[in-house]
Amino acid sequence: MKKYDAIIIGAGHNGLTNGAYLAKAGLNVLIVEKNDYIGGAAVSREMEGGWLYSSCSYVSSMLRQTIHRDLNLTKHGLVLVPYLGTVNFGNDGKPLIHYNNENVGYNHLRQHSAHDADSMFKFQADLTRYAQLIRKNLMRTPPNPTSFKPRDIKELLWLAKQFWGLGEKELYEYMRFFTTSAEEFLDDYFENDLIKAAMASPGIIGTALGVYSPGSAYILLHHVMGDVDGNIGAWGLARGGMGAISNAIASAFKSFGGEIRTNAGVQQVLVENGKAVGVVLENGDELRANIVVSNLDAKRTFTQCMDKKDLPPGIYEKAKNFKIRGSSGKVNIALSGLPKFTNLPDNKFINQGGQGFVGSLETMERAYDCWKHGRFSDDPFVETVIPSAWDPTVAPVGKHWMSCFVQYCPPKLANGGWNAEQKEAFGQTVIDKIERYSP
Amino acid sequence: MNYYDTVIIGGGHNGLVCATYLAKKGQKVLIVEAADELGGLAATREFAPGFKASVAQTLSHFSEKVVKDLNLSTYGFDFTSAPMANIALNDNGEHVIIEGWGASSKLTGVSEKDADTYGEYHQLLKRFADLLKPFWLKTMPRIGHSTLKESLTYAHLGIKMRMLGRHDMGEFMRVATLPARDLMDENFDNPHLKALLSWDGLIGSKMAPRSPNATVLSLLYRMSGKNEGAHTLPRGGIKSLISALKSAAIDAGVEIKTATKVKRIVIEGNENGLKTEGVELQSGEVISSAKVVSAVDPKTTFLNLVGAQNLEIDFTHRIKRSRCEGFVAKLHLALSDLPNFTGLDKLDGRMVIAPELDAIEFAFDDAKYGEASTNPVLEMVIPSLADESLAPAGQHVLSANVMYVPYKHKNGWTAADKTELYERVINTIERYAPDIREKIITGEILTPFDLEEKFHVTGGHWHHGELSISQMLMMRPTYEAAQYSTPIPGLYLCGAGSHPGGGLMGGPGHNAANEILKAKQ
């Protein structure tokens, strides 16, 4: 029987990236994937009638440049089209347009609030500074503070030095930033409701926290941490949909000799003498490897794919307690043509940017409150992109599709699970919200 | 001539503690207090003819060291009282009751599993609380601006953490900023028990069970006292503590002026910079002193009494933005007789009405938008059972902390809003004590806005400032003023707005006195 150097469970983009690096280093790697497609959440799936939906994730901002270069993803067909700007719609009045051109952006902000236009410089500078410290961290393995291993101690000292080097004032500002709410942090800079809401929106995406929750300011960072072509904070769309990113990584992986098996869900990780030695697939096949890597979430890895007796004491319980709380929904809409937004000159950025239906901080927080009650909000926060307006390959000629990201959406409704009718109502709520701005 | 070594503004418990420590070291000290009575939020006042109560209703972590140092037992303060029973009321009469506390407690109304876990849970928290305990009574040094000896405080903290052992240290770091809800869900099944045990981490703060931040730290802070966080009501009530502090102060030679409002702190400047010269009273009289110590909250101290003209812009900005809005209202009821709580025969415990964590969470949601909770949650005691002098013979007082009631009502607080809130609270109590209305002679509800007005605390905030991570330790109230000295030479802070914070503890007063005495040498 063939024995691999490494088996990776899950062909999401992290599994693929991990596989590609290992294969590049000369290891004999197999990736097993439960679905009949690869990519996990970064996937483009063809729907009836010629639509290519990025079913889940919809923009790229955090894909590390190092990875792009190391794996030569451009050669493997990845083209990222930069995102030029976002239009944010408040509860009433003129929309807020985020221009990448500083002067144009400043003048536009002044129409909303002269004070805030000036504050924006400080806000951006502060956030970028906070992000830099974190960016340094993203590509390192975090230390275990309770361990006495030299690596952990070294890493801990490195961290301490980074923080110490900030100086007293900066250090305290960091502590505040990392623990405060988005609302409180933004109040320090801005007075205009729409501007605050527009700035807060990246802070809540995908989290089970509201903008009023302590700790939500820090999440703002995740979205100034990305880069496209070295532009900090820039976003981009992958040509051919988000699946193109996974496909490019997979192609790189295969070019290094890696093997992918789809329709191959893992039943259990094989453990012998306290060491992982392979996996058993759902169809009963047994595959052996020196290393097993899981790209599944920690909860599923430890509680579903592993036997409790194979784990050191406490791990199973910790994994069970590990908090995963789904809070986002996605509505994909096929369109017969491009929508026209009212109050928006030139239908700005429709063909190279997105739309944020943010309302105000209170709108967002109230949507979060609904999630806590196990409902979706009547007035949700929606962020949309029309990828087909930038990339003709993802929709039939003349037609379009709109990706709507919705925060907050509960994993289970209080009045039962999700049935077809409830899903329909959810879709309608999102369409109603957009309709207020695009009749 | 009126000359003092130190003038202390504010005769709350921290002002009294600080003053007594200083006077015992030979300083000539004067306390000026705006109200007629000493004690601040712990002062006992008559809210209806013949009925008295104090805003602070129980003790949980008053410092053992302060009691000993100031000999408070000899002045009539009984520090030996047993923990009160903690009762989570259930509207079906099957209440969850914790009698005793911690290791020696007995739980009723919960599963065996929950009862067992409670013991382990308490032991774990106690180990964490013990780790932090010494640091509540220490000045937390400035980072990068301290002598080596001062910085050792942090090394000490680090070593103590390591000494917890690998497992506990990992747990400590994970748990320290956890939302109350996660901590409770990990440990317990019973919804009443979860709400009851979260209560002390949440009350007084702008935090709900789902908020990450300082909930667990607040719990650990309150566990720093002799009773590991259990609440007590000493014989003679809260009044006995304040009067013992007063007697100790007077015996040590402290002079006290009540009903004396300070208009400003006198600050003079010359080529060497600014310096505190004393205080000017509302009457225009100036009292000169070498040092001024403010026990009032940082916002009042710096923005009103010092004035922005004497401070750096950045510093003023940090004080202005610090969070200091209260979310707890106080209910006082004058009762003709004890009410009957369904299924409860002893009323000398601490009764909490919060059937589950989400009840607290949803009560908080209303307050976020500037409204009082539709379904308030509350904590009640009957202080007249411990101190008969609070009510006429045979009659009683019910005292309750009500969450969540915002300082700023979205329409401004009107009399109608207050009446509505009062009715809601009584309706809530009525579900557990059906005859409560028949027993009420009269009552009052004090919103945080009222607390600000009556007790001169900004935002009506119990702790003179939110107990959140960015406003704790060497950041309380803000750096450059977190070691009790301030940017103005001669001006010190000793109130709850300084490390370690609020509640009836005495820590800030004790620590500030240490710093002041150190500076003198």
Plain-language structure description:
The complex is a heterodimer of chains A (about 450) and B (about 525). With about 450 residues, chain A is an alpha+beta fold. In chain A, about 35% of the residues lie in helices and about 20% in strands. Chain A has 14 helices and 18 strands. In chain A, the strands form 5 sheets. A 6-stranded mixed sheet of chain A has the order 11-2-1-14-13-12, with helices on one face. Chain A is globular. Chain B has an 8-stranded mixed sheet with strand order 7-6-5-13-14-15-12-16, sandwiched between helices. Among the domains of chain B are: about 5-40 and about 235-320 and about 465-520, FAD/NAD(P)-binding domain (3-Layer(bba) Sandwich), CATH 3.50.50.60; about 105-220, no CATH class. Chain B is of the alpha/beta class and about 525 residues long. Chain B contains 16 helices and 17 strands. In chain B, about 35% of the residues lie in helices and about 20% in strands. Chain B is globular and about 70 Å long. The interface between A and B is medium-sized, with 30 and 31 residues.
Protein traits:
heterodimer; A: about 450 residues; alpha+beta; 6-stranded mixed beta sheet; 14 helices; globular; B: about 525 residues; alpha/beta; FAD/NAD(P)-binding domain; 8-stranded mixed beta sheet; 7-stranded mixed beta sheet; 17 strands
> What's the tally of helices of chain B?
16
Category from helices, strands and their pairing of chain A: alpha+beta
Which percent band covers the strand fraction of chain B? Answer: 15-25%
Query: What do we call the CATH topology of the domain at 3-42 and 237-322 and 464-520 in chain B?
Result: FAD/NAD(P)-binding domain
**Nearest-angstrom radius of gyration of chain B?**
22 Å
Rounded to the nearest angstrom, the distance between the terminal CA atoms of chain B is: 25 Å
The number of helical runs of chain A is 14
CATH superfamily of the domain at 3-42 and 237-322 and 464-520 in chain B: FAD/NAD(P)-binding domain
General form of chain A: globular
| Rg over alpha carbons of chain A | 23 Å
Share of helical residues of chain B: 25-40%
Percentage of residues in DSSP E strands of chain A: 15-25%
Examine the secondary-structure arrangement and name the CATH architecture of the domain at 3-42 and 237-322 and 464-520 in chain B: 3-Layer(bba) Sandwich
Query: How many E-type strands of chain B?
Result: 17
Euclidean distance between termini CA atoms of chain A = 63 Å
Biggest sheet strand order of chain B reads 7-6-5-13-14-15-12-16
What coarse outline of chain B follows from CA principal-axis ratios? globular
How do the strands line up in the largest sheet of chain A?
11-2-1-14-13-12
pLDDT < 50 runs, ≥5 residues of chain A:
none
